[in-house]
Amino acid sequence: MILGMSDTADQAERTDERTVRERRAACYREARRSLSRAGFRGTIRERLTDLVEHAPGVHDLDDRADIYGDRIVAALEERVAGLLGMEAAAFFPTGTMAQQVALRCWAGRTGNPAVALHALAHPEVHERHALSQVSGLRPVRVTGAPRLPTADEIRDLPEPFGTLMLELPLRDAGYLLPSWEELTDVTRAARERDAVVHFDGARLWESTVHFDRPLEEIAGLADSVYVSFYKSLGGFGGAALAGPKTLVEEARTWRHRYGGAVFQQFPTVLSALVGLERELPRLPDYVRHARVVAAALREGFAAAGLPWARVHPEVPHTHEFQVWLPYEPEVVAEAAVRQAEETSVLLFGNDWDRGGPGLAFTEVTVSGAGLEWTADDVRDAVAGFAARLPGAARP
C-alpha cells in the first residue's frame, strides 16, 4: 500500500504520540516526585500486593467467596447505601451499565424515556450513544455551556422529560460543581416538572468540601445515585447504584439481563472496600491541597512570563482540575516528559488534548503523593517546565 503525504504525516504523528505516552508512563513509574500516583498505573504484582496488605482490615478473609452477588458483595452494597443515606444499593461491574439500568427503570416508572442531561455528560461523550442504542432512551440536551444546567433552563426546556441526570462533578467542563443553592434549585425545578433526579456521581465522593455538606445530604437531593469505586477511590473497577429499595430490586433484574450478574467479584469488591476505608477519608485533604497547588501553578506561570495560561477552575471544586496553555499539545507533552526524564519531577502526568488552534489542556489530579508538595515546590516545577518550552532558555 502506498501512503500519501497526509497519510504519512498522520502516521508519524500517531507514532510520536505513542512514543510520548510510553515515555510518560515510564516517568510515572520512576519519577521521584509527582502530584498523584494512581494505583491503576501499577503492575499486576503491585496491585495484588497492595490488596493483600490492606484487605484484612476491611473484611474477614475467612468468609466464603461470593457467588452471584452475595456475601462480600452484599456487605459492600450495605456500606454504600449507608454512606449515601439511601435505602439500598446494588453493585455493578461498570458505571455505564449502572446508569443505563437506573435510567431505564425510571423511564418505566415515569412513562417517559426522555432523559434531560448536559451535552458534556458522560453518556453523551464517552458511551457511543448507549442510552439510545441499547436502552431505548432519548437523551435531551439541556445546555452545552461549560457549566452545570440552571434551574431556569430546566423549567424552560421545551419538551417533557422523565428524568434529569446531573453529572457531579461535570468532568469534561473541568470537574465543575454548582453551588449548593444552585443544585437545590435545579432539583426542585425538575420535580416541578414531575421528573425524577438521578446523579451521575462517579466522583461524588470528592464533592463534600465544595458543598460543605456530608455525602448523605448531597445524595439526598436525588432519587438515585451512581458512584464509582475506581475513579477517586483507587479500586480495581466497579460501581454502585443507590436509591429506593424497590428501584434497586428492579435494577438487579436488569443487571442480570444486561450481563452484569458476574459469578465472583470479590477481588474488585475488596479493592472497593479498601478504597472506602483508606481513600475516602483523605479526599477532603486532597481537595484542599489541590487549591494550594492550583494557586501556585497560576503564580508559577505568571512568573515564567507565559503569554497566556489558565487554571480552570481557578479555585478547584474537587482534587482534579484543568490547565490550559497556548501551545500545540505535542509541544507541552514533550516539555513535561523531558522535565521528568531530566529531573525526576513529573508535574503534568496526563495526556494533553487540543482545545483549539495553538491551544492545549490537560487534567491535574492531586492525591496522596501531591500532599508532599509545598507551594514553592509547585512554583519551582513550573519554572523548570516553562524553561523546556520552545524559545525559553534551558535551566
Topology:
Layout: H1 5-30, E1 33-34, H2 44-54, H3 72-84, E2 88-92, H4 95-110, E3 114-117, H5 122-126, H6 130-133, E4 138-141, H7 151-156, E5 163-167, H8 180-192, E6 196-201, H9 208-211, H10 215-219, E7 224-228, E8 239-243, H11 245-257, H12 266-278, H13 283-304, E9 310-312, E10 320-325, H14 329-343, E11 345-346, E12 352-356, E13 359-365, H15 375-386
Parallel strand pairs: 1-11, 3-4, 3-5, 5-6, 6-7
Antiparallel strand pairs: 2-8, 7-8, 9-10, 10-13, 12-13
Protein name: Threonine aldolase
Pfam families: Beta_elim_lyase (PF01212)
Domain Aromatic amino acid beta-eliminating lyase/threonine aldolase: 68-298
Structure at a glance:
Helix content is 45%, strand content 15%. By secondary structure, it is of the alpha/beta class. A hairpin with a 7-residue loop joins strand 9 and strand 10 (320-325).
